[in-house]
Amino acid sequence: MAEAGPGHPGGGRLVSWYMGDAEATGPVLIASNRGPVSITRGDDGRLSAKRGGGGVVSGLSAVADESDMLWVCAALSTGDRAAARATPDGLLDPDLVGDGAAVRMLDIPPATFQRAYNGVANSTLWFVHHMLYDSPNRPSFGPGFAREWEAFRRYNEMFADALADAARAAADGAATGSAAQSGGCPVARAVIQDYHLCLAPQMLAERAPGTPIAHFSHTPWAPPDYYRMLPRDVGRDVLTGILGADHAGFLCRRWADAFVDCCAEFLDAKVDRGRSQVTHAGHVTSIGVHPLGVDADRLRARAAERDVLSRMAALAESTAGKQLIVRVDRTELSKNIVRGLEAYRELLRTRPEWHGKVVHVAFAYPSRHDLPEYREYTAAVQRMALQIQDEFGSPGWDPLLLEVNDDYARSLAACRLADVMLVNPIRDGMNLVAKEGPILSDRGCGLVLSTEAGAADELGPHALMVNPFDISQTAQALHEALAMSATERERRSGALAAAAAAMPPSRWFSDQLDALDRLPVV
Ligand code: G6P
C-alpha cells in the first residue's frame, strides 16, 4: 500500500480516526452521496444531527453501528457544511454524530456539487438506468453537459481522495496499533455506493493500490440498447469506473446481467458468465447479486413505538370499517403513482361494490424538487387525486387519503393497518416498501407488485404481479387482493414477510465484504 505523502492531497490526515484496533479484518470505509446524518443549526447557533433519509442510508445505517467504520459523504445542507468546516478535515465531532461510524463530510464547492448531483447523477445517469427519458425531447448532450461531466469527475475525485487518505491512515494506524503488535496488518476495505460514485472505484484503485474495493448499484442497470444513448466516452467511463472495483454488486440478476452486457458491448471486456466475472484492462471484477432485505425485528420494534401507535389510532378512526389499500413512496418519476391512482379510479368505476368499503391511503413524499420534472409530476399526482375525490367522494366516504408531507411514523402506522399494499413502479432497483409492508401488516396484507421492481424476483411467487403500464390489470389485481379470503391473505403475507427478511442489511453487507475477502492475493 502506498505511503501517505505530502505530495498527495490530504495525505495521512486521518490518522486520528483509526488506531489499529480492528485486529483481524481491518476497518471498513463506506462512501455515499447522502450520509448517515443531516446537520442543522438551531436558533442558538448550536449544531445538532438527525438521521439522513433514503433507502441507501437506512440499509447502511443498520450495519454502521461499528466503531471501525468511516462513512465518507457529501455535505448537503448548510448545517452539514458548517459542521464540515468546523473541523480541518471534515471529520465530524463524534459527540455530534453519536454512536456508529465516524463520519467525514466533504465540503464540495456548491457549483461542482449541483452540476454533479443534479446535472449528471439525477438528470442523466438516473434517467438512463430507469429508462425514463422522454426521448423525442431529452436528453441532448452539448457543451453544457461537458461542463457538468467535468464537475462529476471532480466530485468523484474528491471522494476518491478522501477514501485514499483514510486507507493510508488505516495502514499507518495498523502499523503502530494493537493489530501490528498481534502480527496482523489489516487493510481497509472500501464499499462505494450507487451511480453518484460510479467513477470513484477506479480513481481510488489508482490512488491507493491494494485497497479492496466494492461498488454497489442501488438502481436498475440499463440494457445496452438504452445505455448507448450516453455519449460514447461517458458510457465507457462509467463502466470503467465501476470495473475499477474488485467486486460490483447489484440488487437482482436482471440488473447484473445488463451491466455485464454493457461491459461486453461497449468495452469489449472479457465476460465469464459462469464465474460471474468481467475482465477489463487486465483487472478482474467479480459480479454479485445481493438482494437487500429488511431487519424484521428492528422494523417491528420501531413500529411498536408510541408515535406509531398514536397515528394508527387516528388512521383507524378516520377509516373505520373500511379496507385499506396503502402505498408509500417518494414522489419519484419511476414510482408510477399517477397510474396507480388511475387503476384505483378504474376499480371504483368498474366495481361499484367497493364504494364505501375501501379507502386508498397514498403517501407520496417530496423528492428532488430542484428538478422541474419532479415538480410537474408531484402536481400531476395531486390533480389525479382531486379527480378521484371529486368523482367518488361523498359525505360518508373519503375514498382517497393523499398525504405529501413526510412522516415516517405515519407510514409505519399505515403499513400495520394495510389490507393491500400497492407497489407498481415503472422500474425500480429493489423497492423496500414491497418488503416492509408484509413484515409490518398486523392482519396480513395482499401485495400488488410490479414485474419491474427488483423485489419481484423474491416476492413474485406470493404477490399479485402486474405490468405497471396496464391500469386495467392493476385494477383487477386490486380487486382480487381486496376480495381474497383472510386465510389466503395471511398465508401469502407470511410467505412474503419471510422472503423479505431473508437478506437483512447485515447479511447484505457482510456478503459484499466476504466477496472482497475471497479475492485472490496478488
Ligand atoms: C433513488 C435511487 C437510489 C438513490 C436515491 C438517492 O431512490 O433509486 O438508488 O440512492 O434515489 O436519493 P437522493 O434523495 O439522495 O437523491
Question: Would you write up a description of this structure?
Answer:
By secondary structure, this protein is α/β, with parallel strands linked by helices. 45% of the residues lie in helices and 16% in strands. It is built from 20 helices and 17 strands. It has a nine-stranded mixed sheet, sandwiched between helices. Strands 14-13-12-15-16-17 form a six-stranded parallel sheet, sandwiched between helices. α13 links the parallel β12 and β13 (358-365). α5 (143-176) packs across α7. The chain is globular, with a radius of gyration of 24 Å. The two termini are 12 Å apart. It binds 6-O-phosphono-alpha-D-glucopyranose. 6-O-phosphono-alpha-D-glucopyranose binds at residues 33-34, 54-56, 194, 218-219, 368, 429.
Task: Count every helix, treating DSSP H or I runs of 4 or more residues as helices.
Answer: 20
Order of adjacent strands in the largest pleated sheet: 5-4-1-6-7-8-11-10-9
Number of strands: 17
Cα distance spanning the termini:
12 Å
Low-confidence stretches: 1-23, 179-184
In what range is the share of β-strand residues? 15-25%
Mean pLDDT: 91
Tell me the overall shape: globular
Question: Major sheet, described briefly?
Answer: 9 strands, mixed
Rounded to an integer in angstroms, the radius of gyration calculated over CA atoms is 24 Å
Give the helix/strand class: alpha/beta
* Unique ligands: 6-O-phosphono-alpha-D-glucopyranose
What's the helical proportion of residues? 40-55%
